[in-house]
Amino acid sequence: MGGRIKTIFALHLLLMVYSCSGILSKTAAGVEFLSPEFCLLYAGIIALLGLYAIGWQQILARLPLTTAFSNKAVTIVWGIVWGCVFFSEPITLGKLAGAVLIICGVVLFTKADVELAQKEAEAHE
Is the pLDDT of residue 28 over 70? Predict the structure, then answer.
């Protein structure tokens, strides 16, 4: 049980890292194409996505695919946060409501999945 929660926490940290590629991408869109800064930003994107790909495979070895993919929606919430922090984008009521719905959905699905895993573990004992 505790290992599963640690894995879900690691998944959310990994999804936060994945969402950071959007920061670099949006920043790169504002600089001259193929300039050194542009190339450096895209190298950062490739590095983040490589890290994400390796981490994602490790998560999938520990969690069901349905659980991992249902939690992936959190990247939208991170996008809202990063937009506000790095690009001064407003957090509107609609964005806030959407973020709350996403978080509620992820929590409900993850809680149900953890409970199902507990029942399956008890059945195998």
Answer: yes
27 Cβ contact list (under 8 Å, min separation 6): 41, 86
Q: Which tokens belong to 86?
A: 């790095």
SS3 29: coil
What does the alpha-carbon distance between residue 73 and residue 15 come to, in Å, rounded to a whole number? 9
Summary mean pLDDT of the chain: 90
Task: Please tell me the predicted confidence (pLDDT) of residue 1.
Answer: 54
* E strand or H helix at 20: helix 2-28
State the average pLDDT over residues 1-12. Answer: 83
Q: Which two tokens stand for residue 85?
A: 């922090």
Taking the C-alpha atoms of residue 43 and residue 90, their distance in angstroms, rounded to an integer, is 29
